[in-house]
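A quick aside before the break. I want you to see a complete sequence-to-structure record at least once, exactly as it would be stored in a machine-readable document. Don't worry about memorizing anything.
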Amino acid sequence: MTQMIAIAAAELRLMLRSRLALIGLAALLLLSGIAAVTSAVQTASASATRAAAQAATDEQFKTQPSRHPHRMVHYGTYALRPVGPLAAFDPGVDSFTGTVLFLEGHRQNSATFGAARESSDLVRFGQLTPAFVLQTLAPLLLVFLGFATVARERERGSLRALSAHGASAASILGGKVLALGGVALLAMAPALMALAWAALRHPGEGGIATLIALAYGVYLLVWVIGITAISALARTSQGALVTLLAIWAIVVVLVPRAAAGWAGVAEPLPSRVDTEFAIAADLRRMGDSHNPDDPHFAAFKQRILKQYGVATVDELPVNYRGLVGAEGERLTSELFALYAARADAIQLGQSARLETLGVLSPALAVRRASMVGAATDVATHLAFMNRAEAYRYQLIQRLNGLQVTQVSSADDRARSRDPLADQRTRISADFWKTMPQFQLAPSAPATRAAAMLPAMALLAFWLAIGVGLLWLARRNLDQTAA
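That is the input. The structure line, written in tokens, reads:
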């Protein structure tokens, strides 16, 4: 153990004497610090903006003047997705999925205002966030700092000298891993501080923040071990550098993007336009509330008349138009739910495929763990969409219920030609104040921790591969020393 520490200390001193190593490390720390600060500021601003916008749109809905309830059905409102407590560390899919949803009767709209759709193509490549720095830039720095750790000793002929002084292959490799691991830990410091700050602001997130930090610690440890092993197996420093750069390009850049493209092709998601046409066609088959001869609504009418024991809709004690509106909304919402469930299944299937492909790249595994832990993954976005749709349906049916009970059927029929009847159909603005507000509670940290387990298992798998590679490197050094 003493030899291992001595070798690690010598390696660190050598790095400190290297101007290139110091500049690279300083640049990474600066980028990581900038990423942590700017991401925290932007996330705090986005959180405050969305909360203020949600409060403003709720207030705007409540302060509408006296109107016909169906006017309010079409007036609609907005649902804004709240910012997760750890989103500053890893914004995940938030930039691509949209955060604002317009809720109105008879329609299910898509979320809008995703940063990637509103910004340049540079945003699509990768935002400068603590997660991006650790996933992409930190391994590249470790490659440049560690590619020659063992290969340099072989080229200089100092491996035999170390062996002659009693240093075993395990001590040599262990010392090199300790030195490079210290650099990796230093590179993680700004990101860990960002996580700690988020955990302090939201004490309930402390456990999940620790788990995210562990995931990145294992990820960088895989790189540290792998870099040291390949440096020991390579014949020259140049060969080690070329090999490690190729591995970085494949594992960090190529595989994640190719995997995302393959998941989209293997399980394609229908476009919004195709879905709209399919829903419209199904609605025509199910029933048209504006067609008096429609079979479904003809049967609905007979069922209502029988329920109230009357012969005509004029004799109903409630507003039949409101009942028809509520039935039409029920039919459309059932279709919306059906198509949304299909789209959700496809998107979750794509996400599962990407998670499985973590066996090809530890970057995919740590990205999955990070997004799930930060509640910025696809499943969180879909939970927002489904909660917003449930709220939309509840709100619209409450408004339809007001038309049923608060608006006279005779006035409703005559309001287009009789100004006084039109005035009587405008119910009190006090009713808008009784409508529920949109709320979305974040998923529990325990739920997210459980969802992180498969990705954590994949990281453990990669760590085992790295340890196996290091074992091969030890045997190779033993043979060289012999």
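Two observations worth writing down. Strands lie at 77-80, 100-104, 107-108. The chain has a mean pLDDT of 87. We'll return to this after the break.
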